[in-house]
Each structure stands twice: as C-alpha cells, then as structure tokens.
Design a protein that fits this description.
This protein is mainly α and 75 residues long. It is built from three helices and no strands. Helix 1 crosses helix 3. The longest helix is centred in the N-terminal third of the chain and has 19 residues.
C-alpha cells in the first residue's frame, strides 16, 4: 500500500465511521481520532496504515481525519 492509495481510502472511511456514529462532517464538534482508529482496526481496515511516510502513517491519517472533520485548527 502506498500513501497515495491510502489517503482516499482513509478519507472515505472517515465518512463511513461518521455515518455509523451519527456524526455530521460539517458539524463543528470534535470527533475523536482515537475512536476512529479503534474502529478502523476493529473493522479490519488497519492495513490502510501500512504505508511508508516521513511523519508516520498514523500521523498522516490523523491529519486527513482532521481535514475531513474540519479540525485542522487543533494542530
């Protein structure tokens, strides 16, 4: 898996997770990345975090998560 392959998958999984949890992507709330990460592994999607990255796959996924949920102000 490459980073370029993982990014759209993680972004899509953010919306699946949000639907499952009843979270609106445009809502200014603060969805939890750690809850998303737990869900990701429990659903068997952990392989999407097996790409090479300078900062690390988890950090990249968290950045994409924050962008999807409009939480980049936290960083």
């Amino acid at each position: 898996m490459t980073k370029d392959e993982a990014e759209p998958a993680i972004r899509h999984l953010c919306s699946l997770w949000a639907d499952e949890k009843g979270i609106v992507l445009t809502n200014p709330g603060q969805p939890s990345f750690s809850e998303f990460l737990t869900w990701l592994y429990s659903k068997g999607y952990g392989h999407y975090l097996t790409f090479r990255s300078r900062t690390g796959p988890r950090e990249d996924a968290e950045r994409w998560f924050d962008q999807e949920f409009r939480q980049t102000w936290r960083n």
